[in-house]
Amino acid sequence: MMKALVLGGSKGIGKAIADSLSSIGCDVVATSRKEIDTANLSSVKKFIKKHKQTDILILNTGGPPPKTFSEVTEKEWQKYHNQLFLGFCLLLQKLKVQDGGYVFVITSGVIKEPNPRLVISSAYRLAFTAVFKLASKELAARKVSCVNIAPGLINTDRVKDLGNASEMAKNIPMKRLGEPREIGDFIKSIVQNKIKYLSGVTIPFDGANSNFVV
Amino acid sequence: MMKALVLGGSKGIGKAIADSLSSIGCDVVATSRKEIDTANLSSVKKFIKKHKQTDILILNTGGPPPKTFSEVTEKEWQKYHNQLFLGFCLLLQKLKVQDGGYVFVITSGVIKEPNPRLVISSAYRLAFTAVFKLASKELAARKVSCVNIAPGLINTDRVKDLGNASEMAKNIPMKRLGEPREIGDFIKSIVQNKIKYLSGVTIPFDGANSNFVV
Amino acid sequence: MMKALVLGGSKGIGKAIADSLSSIGCDVVATSRKEIDTANLSSVKKFIKKHKQTDILILNTGGPPPKTFSEVTEKEWQKYHNQLFLGFCLLLQKLKVQDGGYVFVITSGVIKEPNPRLVISSAYRLAFTAVFKLASKELAARKVSCVNIAPGLINTDRVKDLGNASEMAKNIPMKRLGEPREIGDFIKSIVQNKIKYLSGVTIPFDGANSNFVV
Amino acid sequence: MMKALVLGGSKGIGKAIADSLSSIGCDVVATSRKEIDTANLSSVKKFIKKHKQTDILILNTGGPPPKTFSEVTEKEWQKYHNQLFLGFCLLLQKLKVQDGGYVFVITSGVIKEPNPRLVISSAYRLAFTAVFKLASKELAARKVSCVNIAPGLINTDRVKDLGNASEMAKNIPMKRLGEPREIGDFIKSIVQNKIKYLSGVTIPFDGANSNFVV
């Protein structure tokens, strides 16, 4: 039985992933901010000490409040540097993912098309994307696959907080938000079918909404 | 029952996709070059007239012979323009993919990191990638999802023709070629789980071998 | 004295480049469609035979009429394949750029963010971009530098034909179209200052309008 | 007379930029780590208080020591987060660049092709690239142009520290390192010719060495 640690697993995309992995018999630990808050590095270290290892690691955390570049304070940069970048780095460095395992990180479409209102997320999630790319090459030696999922607008509380969801949906080619289940099932399928060669890759998940060519 | 047309379905990646879609009960038509040769536009038109529509369309064709830029002749540009680009455009324009269906195109990692020996493929598969991106936005209105799979080195006859496969494998972080089955199962899972929001996206499939960040 | 061949040099961006290179003492041949029409391959071959070599080559040609993907006919694909791709390939293969020379290609911002109304240009200019990238590596051995300029909305007849220019300008962060002179002076400066290490690169030129991160 | 603040202006690329801007009559303040050390945020704040405004701002700083992902300590992440990211953010937020001015940031080719030995730089320079892209859109309203220069291997002390320079040069298509002067002259030309429409753009400067297509 594969053990899966799902950060931010109590709601939204994280919960959908936890449910989906449970459905194929994984031993899922779905954590909320009480168990691990990546903005708080001692919480991260305690978590690493407690869990030590896993077969599947899902790096996932909520997004910062909407801010334009000129509005972000030094304190906010520091806080979200921990939450979106440094906490994940420590986990990836120190929590052992077993040979043949998987790491998925849930980032955001803003890593390819940065969003003026989401400047913090655009910067730090992208920084982690670079680290994750390099880590995927190191981890490949132990047959660990690393996949970066970059969701567009998904039907979660987070997106509802960002504005009028049904209005946003109209501007997406698919005329709807994505369902958390779609991402959960996507990850489940990769694990279930032992697809390993898909690694070191960023996968936008956005209903054909992005505009860059590749 | 969903109907699937798999071009180049008699061997390699195409065959793996055909097998995988059959295993979940799709009605698969796996074509060889006898049924449709995308280098030959009248063959393409005949094929469109015969099949008219499908639920799942797999655009897949063999690669051109290795050539550096200075070696490619005018005649070769013309031939592979048909095979890798124009034939696919006609299919996408005229063969109806039913509402809620899927189009997958199998391109190559060279669309993001062009390869000096594979200049023809680097150019025309990338041109089609641009068309496919735009088509994904049009097709989204009818809930058709479009996914571009860009394989790295996969264990097929094609790759064996390109050189010493076990030598090539050593330079890949995963120390092996990909298996056609991994791509077949990947596509199967998307269809089986009705994952639709993944569209307008290019997915490198290369064992963590590529070097670009996103 | 350096010889410069400027295709499409009778108006717009091409003319600005021709003027700018003249101003620093280059021997400029600014061609119009009468001297070379890249849509017509025999015209291209005649041009190569006549000129044989140059120090600076500016690959530049008008854009196709606006068309969405479903509207493009087979004949149009063929025509613009010649005009935007194959004609340039033949020139790059057969017209000798002297050691220490320069090749600039003027493409378009649509190569990174394909435009639904400009599908032909999005596809073939991108295909040439792949070829040009690979050629830059071959030509580097002879100290020839290759730079791809990808203009956004520039104040030319072409852009006026595409729609209401002052309306378009409002949506650009810089609130104006670019001036052809800016591109002319940019190219002039590279030549004048013997900047050679800038090669194999695509430079969007768009008033901060594009949305991709890198 | 335009005022230019050049960070890291006492040697290497920064010095070449300072010299080049001086040669066209700019009033250049070339700072060394004594005047401003971006790793030290109070030094950054003092610098902002002292200078308040400029016409041209060159964001430039040395690179961190080579480290692979698993080797980087928490303390190092924190330090270089300040040096490569947060210090630059504060400068861009609080030091006024006059209307019609310029901001150039000197990053690195690793922002597009992250380097396993330069993981810190790959991450934080890329994070700043996202911020800089968004800032370019805000600053465009005041006709300030923002250009990100991403050098490959340039003939500086830094590169000599990283290894055998002449050995490295052999693997570059141009068979040499770039000269700091080439970057200095490039920036000078943009200022001198009042090229403003080039903004929100990242320009690799690497002798045709990179492998991504766009």
Written overview of the protein:
Chain A has one domain: 3-Layer(aba) Sandwich (Rossmann fold), CATH 3.40.50. Helices cover 43% and strands 18% of the residues of chain A. Chain A has seven helices and six strands; from the N terminus they run E-H-E-H-E-H-E-H-E-H-H-H-E. In chain A, helix 1 links the parallel strand 1 (3-6) and strand 2. In chain A, helix 1 runs parallel beside helix 7 (180-192), helix 2 (41-51) runs parallel beside helix 3 and helix 3 (74-94) runs parallel beside helix 4 (119-140). The relative contact order of chain A is 0.16. The mean pLDDT of chain A is 97. Chains in contact: A-B, A-C, A-D, B-C, B-D, C-D. The interface between B and C is large, with 36 and 36 residues. Chains A, B, C, D: This is Short-chain dehydrogenase.
Order of adjacent strands in the largest pleated sheet of chain A: 2-1-3-4-5-6
- Rounded average pLDDT of chain A: 97
User: So, CATH architecture of chain A?
Assistant: 3-Layer(aba) Sandwich
Which percent band covers the strand fraction of chain A?
Answer: 15-25%
Number of helices of chain A: 7
Which class of secondary structure composition applies to the elements of chain A? alpha/beta
CATH topology (fold) name of chain A = Rossmann fold
Distance between the termini of chain A: 37 Å
CATH class of chain A reads Alpha Beta
Computed Rg of chain A:
16 Å
Helix content of chain A: 40-55%
Count of DSSP strands of chain A: 6
Largest interface, Cβ cutoff 8 Å: A-B, 48 and 48 residues
